[in-house]
Amino acid sequence: MRNTLNTVIVNWLHLDVIGKAITRKLHEWVINSSPPVRKMVDTFHGGWLGHPLHPVLTDVTIGAWLYGSFFGVLSLIPGLGRLRNKVHNLNNLGTVSALFTALSGLADYSAIKREAVAEGTVHAGTNAVAIGLHLLSWRARRKGKEKRSLLLALLGTIVATAGAWLGGELVYRLGVGVNHNLSDEGPKEWTNVASNADLKDEKPLRVELDGVPILLYRHNGQIYAMGAICTHAGGPLDEGKFDGTCVQCPWHDSVFDLRDGSVVYGPTVYPERTYEVEVYRQRIRVRHLSQEHQTSEETESEALASELTG
Predict the structure, then answer these.
(1) CA distances (Å), 283 to each of 201, 280, 289, in order?
(2) 3-state secondary structure of 277
(3) Whose C-alpha in 2, 58, 277, 304 is 20 to 30 A from the C-alpha of 83?
């Protein structure tokens, strides 16, 4: 079934071509927008949550619609007509939440992986149809056409369930929305990774240590070490654009702070792992920035701040 569906989507409907054109325009609009707009889009990505927002919202939407459809069928049984108020409330909740779910999905779709564009386009289209059916259901209910309203809501829920299945394909088979840099933490002891002479100012250097790609970058005399694989879709950060202590992924333009790996701009919602780095006998060496080291550095910073303010 999966292979047949993929053939229909890609070879017959050419949705990969259509989807790439749509996502390119959406992504260009986001990237060229003002910082407040980008931050708003990042809110829908779910950076503040620590993982994508879209799956959380879909649970609310589909859950409300499913229960609404279930109670809607029960309300047709003589003597259970009183359930219709619950049905209306549940369907309204699902439809209102669907608008926010769609916005979060649109934000993710604008920066979706190339190999997932076709399936993502079908997923978006399917859910748009589901929302449309539920809006028609709401309209029919306003006109007093209860049975028509229940039928449209049931159809919308069935379509949304099919869309949810496609959403599962996107995540579990195509890796959309997952962290693409879950490599080992790196060495816990100081380990040589490069010669100091090999790292030029403002020139990125990618090294690998036990299969773990690490990005080295020297800015204003300070060396930074961070994961070299973008957490969003696996892009090579060493090929990205550098601006001060920030690096922008060349694939979907996520921006990371080299100092602590934090996300400056999405679409990624996952920070990068950073490493403690030093030059010892003209060799650059790194080690995993453990919680103990972080706590020690924070204590030293707090002590220095106390001295300066004291």
Answers:
(1) 16, 5, 18
(2) strand
(3) 58
Residues in the chain: 310
Q: Which distant-in-sequence residues (6+ apart) come within 8 Å of 270 by Cβ?
A: 50, 51, 179, 181, 231, 232, 263
| Max CA pair span of the chain | 86
Asked if 150 and 158 count as a contact pair (C-beta separation under 8 A), the reply is no
Q: What pLDDT, in 10s, does the model give residues 34-65?
A: 999 999 999 999 999 999 999 999 999 999 99
Q: What is the CATH number of the domain that holds 225?
A: 2.102.10.10
- Enumerate residues 6+ apart whose C-beta is below 8 A from 154: 69, 72, 73
Written as one string, the DSSP assignment of 139-198 is HHHHTT-HHHHHHHHHHHHHHHHHHHHHHHIIIIIT-TTS-S-------SS-EEEEEGGG
In this structure, the answer to whether residues 83 and 220 fall within a common structural domain is no
Look up tokens 């010669």; give the residue. Answer: 195
Domain count, the chain: 2
